[in-house]
Amino acid sequence: MKHLLSYDFFTEKELERILPSFNQKSFKKKELLLQEGTLSQEVYFIHRGCVRSFLVDYEGKEHSILFGTEGYWMGDLQSFINGSLASYSYQAIEPTEVFAIKKTDWDQLMDEEASFQKYVGILFRNALITQQERIVELFTLSAEERYEKLEKSRRDLLKRVPQKHLASYIGITPEFLSQIRKKRTETE
Amino acid sequence: MKHLLSYDFFTEKELERILPSFNQKSFKKKELLLQEGTLSQEVYFIHRGCVRSFLVDYEGKEHSILFGTEGYWMGDLQSFINGSLASYSYQAIEPTEVFAIKKTDWDQLMDEEASFQKYVGILFRNALITQQERIVELFTLSAEERYEKLEKSRRDLLKRVPQKHLASYIGITPEFLSQIRKKRTETE
DNA sequence: CGTTTGCTTGAATTCTGTCAAAGCAGGTGG
DNA sequence: CCACCTGCTTTGACAGAATTCAAGCAAACG
Fold it and tell me: Which of A90, A94, B65, B187 could bridge to A33 as Cys pair (CB 3.0-4.6 Å)?
C-alpha cells in the first residue's frame, strides 16, 4: 500500500488507523468495477492499472468521462455518498489492482479520523477545480486543441487507452480523431 | 441573514458562532465582485440578486461558467483556497446583496466549527456532482437540448440573464441561440 | 433625443458527425 | 504456428451543425 503513503499526507500513526479499512482487489481487463444502475458500495484507490468511467446515452453511445491510473481515486460519488443508483459504469482497461474501502468503513473513518476527513476535503476540492477546468476547455477549445491538451497533460493515456475512448473523452467521434491525427502528422 | 438559516442545516447555537464571520455587501448591476487576475480574499453567499462567473479566452471572447442566484455560493475556489490568482471574473447581473466571508474567518471556522466544516464538505460534494452532470450534458446533448434543459432547470434565469450570456453558458454563439429560439417558436 | 447595447437574420464558411468500405491489428482455437 | 475472427483504426465522400460576418432593428439609457 505504498501509494496511499506516498502522498505523504498522513503520519505513521494515522496510517495505522486508516489502512486496515482497505482491502486489496484485482480486476481483469474489461472487467467492471461497478455497473450503471447498481448501488456503489465501495470506492477505489488505484494502485496499478487503468480504469475508465463511462455512460451510455439515450442513443446507446458510450461516453468516457474519466480515466484513472496509478494514484487516482475512482468511484461513483453520487451513488456511494447519496445511496442512489450509479449513473456511470467503471471498467478496467488493463489488469488493475486497487485498494477498496466500503461505505461503512468510509463513514467510520470520516467520523473518527480527522486527518482522513481533511484528506477527503482536499480530494474533493481538487476534483472540483479539475472538473471546472475541463468544462472551460470544452467551451474554449476546438476538438484539435483538446486533443493536444490531452497529449500534454496525460501522455501516458495515449498508449494505454484505445483511440475510441480517447475520442469520446474529448467529445468527438473516433473517425474525426483519426482525421485530426492524420492532419497533424502531415503538417509536422 | 435568513437564507443561511433557511438551509436549516445549523442549530441556533452553531449559527451564533458562524454568522458573526459574515459581512453584508452590495453590488450594483455590472459591478465586479472579483476580477480575473486578482487574489480572491472572500467568498459570497447570495442573498438577493444574480451573479455570473465568466472567463475571457485567448481570442477575447467571454464564456459564462456559472450563474448564482438567491441561496447560491459564489467564489473562486482556486484563488480563495490555494491563494493563486483568479482565472475567472465574477459580475453582478442585477443589483445584488451578498454575505461575504473573508479567508481568515473562513479558515478559522473550518478549524474550530465542526458543523461548518461538514456543511462545506456537503457543499463541495454537491458542486462536484452538479459539475459532473454538466460535463455529461455537454457530451450527450445537442445545443438545442442543452437549451431546453436550461429552460427546465433554471427557468428563472431566462428572464433575468441576457441571451448572450445564456448562449455562452450552454456553449454556443448568441446568433445560434437566436436560430434555436426562432425554430422552436415556429415548430410549436 | 442620440447613443449604446443587445437581439435577430441571412449567406458564406468552417467544423464535426455520419456512413460505408477497407485495412490492420490482436486474440483464439485448431 | 497458422488461419480465422473480431474489433479497432483509417479513409473519403457527404450531410448537418455551429460559427462568422455584416447588416438592420429594437430596446434601454443617459
Answer: A90
Taking the C-alpha atoms of residue B27 and residue A161, their distance in angstroms, rounded to an integer, is 48
Same domain membership, residue A174 and residue A92:
no
Reading the block at residue B174, the C-alpha cell is: 448568441
User: Alpha-carbon distance A16 to B154, whole Å?
Assistant: 47
- The pTM for the full model equals 0.89
Q: Is residue B28 part of a domain?
A: yes
Q: Is the CB of A83 under 7 A from strand D?
A: no
Which domain does A166 fall in, by range? 141-188
CA B119 to chain CA centroid, nearest Å = 17
User: What's the pLDDT tens digit per position in A11-63?
Assistant: 989 999 999 999 999 999 999 999 999 999 999 999 999 999 999 988 889 99
Rounded to whole angstroms, the Cα distance separating B129 from B126 reads: 5
Distance from CA of B81 to the nearest CA of A (A): 9
- Any B CB within 8 A of A134 CB: yes
Per-residue pLDDT reduced to its tens digit, A114-152: 999 989 988 888 898 888 899 999 989 999 999 999 999
